TrEMBL record:
Organism: Rhodoblastus acidophilus
Alphabetized UniProt keyword annotations: ATP-binding, Kinase, Membrane, Nucleotide-binding, Phosphoprotein, Transferase, Transmembrane, Transmembrane helix, Two-component regulatory system
Pfam families noted in UniProt: DUF4118, HATPase_c, HisKA
Annotated transmembrane regions: 174-195, 207-234, 254-274
Enzyme Commission no: 2.7.13.3
Domain Histidine kinase: 448-668
Annotated PANTHER family: SENSOR PROTEIN KDPD
InterPro entries, per the entry: GAF-like_dom_sf, HATPase_C_sf, HATPase_dom, His_kinase_dom, HisK_dim/P_dom, HisK_dim/P_sf, Histidine_kinase_KdpD, KdpD_sf
Record-level GO cellular component terms: plasma membrane
Name under which the protein is recorded: histidine kinase
Amino acid sequence: MTATAKDGIDDPMADTPRQNAIEAPWEVSDRLLACVGADAGAEIVIRAAGRLATRLNAAWIVVHAERPGREETDPVRLKRLDSALHLAERLGAETRRLIAVDTVGEILRLARRENVTQFVVGRPRQTLWRRLTGAGFVAALAERAPDVSLHVVNAPAPPPRRRALAIPAPPARLWTGIAAAFAGVALAVGVGEALTLALDLPNLSMVFLLAVLGCAATYGPWSAVAASLLSALAYNFFFIQPLHTLSIAEPQEVLSLLVFLIVAVLTGSLAGRVHDQATAASQRAEAIAALYDFSRKLAGAARLDDVLQASATHLRRTQGDAVALLLPQDGDLQLRVACPPDRALSAGEVGAARWAFDKQEVSGWRTHTLPDLAMQFRPLLSPRGAVGVCGFTPKQPDAPLAPEQERELAALLEQTALAIDRSLLIGEAVRAAALEDNEKLRTTLLSSLSHDLRTPLSSITGAVTTLRQLGAQMPETDRDDLLASIEEEAARLSRFVANLLDMSRIESGALKLRRDLIEPSESVRAAAERIQKTFPGFPIETSVAPDLPFIGGDAQMLEQVLFNLLDNAHKYAGNAAIHARREKQSDGSETVVISVTDDGPGVKPADLARIFEKFYRGGRPDGRKAGTGLGLSICKGLVEAMGGTIEAQSPATRRRGARILLRFPAARLKVDPA
């Protein structure tokens, strides 16, 4: 059974547990869920789960769960976690990040939704407490999901290497927070002294607690801890007897100071943690808003060049000092967009970009491939494979990208790759539609040629053969009829070839029109006379309003348009009427309207918009297709080239017939001053 057929069977059966309120896994097909952390054994667990999923031909999910307020903040562990999740995606897994107070319960809820039948987890490090109590994630998972198979993978972390003690330099923000703690405590001392002079307050510790909370809310937990210690010392020195010493006379004051210190440290730490979480939430919200704005811009970009320009501009604003986007073309990578535009790629950078595209791996700055380059190159991966390469110069080349930057960059590049792939697919669809249209036109043209050339040629050949073999024996009237037939069929061929040439010139843009002043009445009269010469006995009613204004265009082409319309009426009806009049527009300008009306079967409402398409042919009253389907299409091209419009109406009179309306703006005559 193929994978597609198998999935088609599994999908409705996978809905059965939900429809019947079955909470246990419904074992239609195996589904795996691997739980990983930010430790060094995450990749081992993922590879083991991948091998098991391959053997079982099962879908699998990799999950990392955290508790709110205890999210991973260590950059090394975050980078390791991101790397592990990227590995899982490359191996074909879905990845999820969960935040919940009850992580085991949230994982089990996810497992029930996804109909997971087997868990894969790493063996945790056995501490003394876990040995004594049997507590731990694996034990809780096994206890709360007894109906799901549990695979425990030995994933020992490598022993830590002994390194020389190195005290990292504290960040500038830490020094700023400590300075703020000194300032806040000094302000609290001043406020306390003022309150002591004005009021007889028994306890001023709340003033210092405000300073601690202010530092925590502004600069984070470390500033709050520093403010707590400084507040305890300052409160003891300035407000506990004996004053201006660090000694304490009363035992209860020792207890009060100790309680104050504990409360200050706890509240300051909590407030600082809230500050950090609020800052992180704000940064995540900004990143999500930026990603949403970027996605909206990409969704509104119709052309590939617009997608590339929007992507390069956004990536430069958020990720790097310079951005380059390269796409495959003619068997090689070509630089399509650079931001700034004058940023050129060196030979080494081009080589790194090719390597990233071919291997679908990161190259350049801070990688194992050409790490000395100033630019890093990442492949743009879509479901169809690599569609291009993005190169960027980081804003801080001396430091690696933070985990948040890595995640944001990965999301932006994924959106860019999908947008590029979408634009390429649209282009392929347009080209395929054009090829299909060309094939249809070619088939229609060949069919039309085979009929419209063969019929008159057969008539001409038959008439010539008859004249050659029996000409001397035939009466003169019969010979004249055959010669008239030859002349008529030759004229028909001539019109057909002329139509093909006119359509070819219109399609290629090679049609040259004269820009003269045309008197509409002359063109109407010339077209009527020409059609009567071509089809003697065809009744035509002509009506031209007096004093029609001139129109601009080519008189010969206008006559050809009217002739084609009358020829079309001859094919489908027994008579035709041609009228010309003027119309006054709302803006005061004038329009010349020329209409050609017949009393034939008319045009179906659904076909009114199609009758001006190439090779569209309506049916005669006897059901046969008439003409080549080029006449009305040529009329449309010529009329629009002269600045006019053409429109079809049906029924025209007494629920029958069709009317073609031509509208041309009246020409403005320049009058020379006397």
